[in-house]
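Re: weekly structure request thread

Next one in the queue (541 aa):
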Amino acid sequence: MNVLIVDDEQHAREAAKLLVPWERLGVQELLEADNGESAKAVILDKQPSIIVTDMHMPVSDGMRLLEWVSEHAPSAKLIVISGFNDFRYVRHTLKHGGIDYLLKPIDPAQLLDAVYRAIEQLNEEEQQRLQQIEQGITLNQYKPVYRDYLFGQLIQPKSDTETVIAQLTEQFPQLASATDCCAILFSLQPVMAPLLKRFGHDRDLAVFAIQNVLNDFVVHEWNDGCAFRATHDPEELVVLLWRGADRAFQRAGQLIQALRDTFGLPFHAGVGHLSPFPASAAMAVESAHNASLHRNLLSVQGPYVWSPGSSDTGAAASQQPAPPDFTTLADPVWLALISRDEQLLATTLRQWFEAVSKLPTITPIHIERWTKQIEIASARWQHRDADAEESSSTPPLSLPFLYEDDTTLSLRKTEENWNALLNAEADRLARLIRQERNVIRDIIEYIERHLQEDLSLQQLAGRFFLSREYVSRRFRQETGVTLSEYVEGLRMEHAKKLLSNRAYKITDIAAMVGYVDEKYFSKVFKKHGGLSPQQFRKLEP
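Done, posted below.
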């Protein structure tokens, strides 16, 4: 279960994170967004079960976000936290299925109660969904889904094996006498890109087609087992053999050939250990998954499988050079980004890819490791760019690994794509810096035209839909003085000009430069020039 916290104020997001024991409640990932638009991207990507959102935010507010969630993520539970005791907001929250409408400052007990109620509703809905599956509603239509669900339960380490086997035996009677099993795990990640082009970018349809080809052999021709979708990874298919499991390596080769004949692509598979059934079905699948992680992505030697104990493992793997870390690129790439130095960027990437190209074997383990390092580096770059108001709402930069049409890893395509993506990021950063300078200039122009009005940090930040922290920090960086110092100095200079006109009273001049209290105005004026307004006026010719 994922939870998304949406608020334009960092301290409010931090408070919501700290006030609830999210991890204890089973939350795997705690996500953040600082406005409605960035929240939509996170929702589409991560599909959070619970969304805790503010109402008043820049770019896209909470009211529009609630409307969007109702249409695009109706199962998500909404909790609104707002600083406005406004019945319109409350009614809007209830209309769109919100769990609760809480006022800032956040009451920990109220927030925790709302979260408990959201989780309770989610559990009830999940229970209802499972009951519908178990009751076999429109079983013919959902038979493949139900079968995948049962096999998914079977390979869970802690599952009610007897109940699951009893239900599966209705479809596969030979399961009752099975004693051994072996798993073949097909990783669809390398072949998915070319397949999606053929299936109109319908991922479910593509996976369904592959599963059908596998089951034409495994279920209908051999009657040895079943192919099903892995519950933990949508881009993996598992073939569980419980008859003739000792021939799994041979069967894997036949299945890879069948898939290649059908789709014209070399599929990747890992073969697991022969394991007791049903007690170790989960271990059989886990060993197949581990085998799949050790396959070489650089070559496809016809239909092949990677099996524990094959000649490609062991000594060969231990003798290859240590893979280069992407973390070594973090600083030089950042320097290239902020300086928009395309040559430095290209040279830095070229050196890294040259080191990678010397590896005789690149496995999914390498890809996973580099991907995590890229995420860390991207987070560091984003942190360094923390002065940018947009930085927190911009998703971390993704640098994907690309494959050739024959599903082998393409270092050439990957390097070219990274160059393009990073140069685009350099352009974005440069554009952002220009925008930041423009907004400070706009604030200064506003101050000059409205000296008689409230020019507090809070008022200006609200008018320009920026956080107070951001305005304070960026204003000082751009001008060298604080916002209050700048406003005060500008008011005093304007007051001096007005004092030369003796038609104006001191009280009037104070009001014209934003001071209601004449005494306070005089005090500030004297602090700046050493003279009171009256003394300054006497010195004027």
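Residues 138-309 form a domain with the Alpha-Beta Plaits fold (CATH 3.30.70.270). The first strand starts at residue 2 and ends at 6.
Next request, please.
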